[in-house]
Amino acid sequence: MLRNIPTEPPGFVGRADEPALIAHALAARRLVTLTGPGGVGKSRLALRTAHRTPPSGSDGVCWTDLWPLRDDRLLTAAVADAVDLADHSGGSPEETLTTWLADRRLLLVLDSCEHLLPAAQALVRRLLAECPGLTVLTTSRQPLGLDGEYAYQVRPLPPDSDGLALFADRAAAAGAPLLLPGDRAAARSLTRRLDGLPLALELAAAQLRHLPVGQVERELVHRLDLPSGDRATRPARHRTLRTTVGWSHELATPAERLLWARMSVLCGPVDTETVAEVCGGGAALPSGAVPGVLAALAAKSVVIREPGPDGGVRHRMLDTVREYGAMWLAELGETHTLAERHARHFLGRVRRIRREWFGPDQLDGYRTVERSYADLCAALDHLLGTRPHQALELAAGLGFHWACCGHLHDAGAHLSRALRHAPDDAPARPAALWALGVVRALQGDHEAAELLAGDCGQAAAAVGDADDRLRTAYLRGLVHLLCGRPSAARAEAERALCRPGGGLGPRMMCRLVRIFALTGLGLLDQARAEAGRLLVVCGRHGEFWTRSYLDYQLALIALLQGRPADAAGHARAMLGAKQRIGDSFGTALGLDLLAASLAAHGEGLRAARVYGAGLTYWRAVGHPQRGTPELGPVRERCERTTRELVGDELYEKTVAGAADGEPAVLLAEALEPG
Asked: InterPro entries from the entry (predicted)?
């Protein structure tokens, strides 16, 4: 099973035997590092190896892009995402990650470690020590330096064979096939001058859209300052690449050079709108001209275009190219200006996501937060040093989304840091305290969550915002529910709802607390009626998060009222919504309810398999089964009924088999009715 692995692009040239050699090394060693200078093709070779030679008898291959990370604090979170761990525990992220991987047989690929080397060394050392079934493949400009590491040096392509073939392939893609003998001779000379370095060859070939190959060869030889046939004086490969990148920069138009420099501020792959808003502006590069300039840079292989998860196109630069752009951005004196624009853009996105939370754009908001994680963290870091009150606003706006998507540790750390830096009278303080309280509640630290709810209430009273007041009531009610106090939760929600004001989203949260409380008090008909009414409102507004927990309550109520078929339908509706949001905690809850519904309906084997799938998701959130107290008897009844239906031996075998399965596959299977 390949997880989170980029699609392998077409046009892999040469290195026919190397993936098999690396696979052989991975079979003998638990840590293999592909080393070599920038632009030599380490990442491309690692991707080829991951796609073509996944280890047999294992749980699969997981890929982690480290190049977007500007801060080693994000390393563990990036690896956790790659292995589908959505940590809700209160332990350290490293501890939870090693526990999750302890009994798995995985190949973990860490691409581009060099800028996070000390942190990567520490994490890989711990993972290999505590996870005996784990094998790690890394790419880095230098080895990690750990015991037992096998460092495989990725060399440039042989200039007269594979190097020439790569250049010819890219020349044809640029619309300049090497048809004439003179063109082939110039290309052969050029590949020798460039030492067969893949990125340098691709940048040179991209210029054939505008220049004949002979001119490309002459100009690069001149810049490299090489006598025509003197191989002994050839410069180091890093100089070869830097010279080629610099020459590509010289040949770019002023607008292309400016966009190249400005794009260096962006961390991850981004859409065209983001590039235009962050990098456009001024007479030299108006925002309306950015799409055309971006396309020109892509044609010159300066920018890589790749399909986005939403079907659109996203843009990024390779490390070496981005480093060159950052150098020129500093020369232009725009480094701080672009960091400001970058932070302003992503703060604006978070404001829009928060405004549109209860509505048809909610899913887009969750996806944006997940896709832009590295850029959002970079914006937060910048604002902490320049405008702490806006850093607090950004962290507060992201906290709930991060909590739902499994970034609880990072959300807690970012919110705590922003609260320390921001002034006490910052307008976003109540929202930040609320988001941090939700994080602590989901981590199981109910005492801390209750204290934060008190602080949030005081801050909300000082600000006088109705939405903050409603969110405070939601947090207090949530803690009451999790601690088995449904009467207190109901009273809290009703006190908040009897006061006028507040947006639809925060009011719906409080009404949701009241429904949970009614169910916990055994007032099932009343809870069912109100949940049905709210479900209609959510459908009218195209909202998913509240709707998913309404379906959860309706499934639980149907189960308690002896309507297992209805319960299964609502549980599947909840799971479908949680799958779209990316909420592993909610998915685990939904699978438990679906298993109980199937058991009550007499489908013993399916119930056992779905229950095992739920255990897999509970492991993925880093702690045993949780939820409100009324779920405990439901789970016990599910296990008892299922054992009676299929027998103890088959039950245990089926649950254990599902618990060791692939979460996404198990969820897809559970969502299939019948």
From this structure: P-loop_NTPase, TPR-like_helical_dom_sf
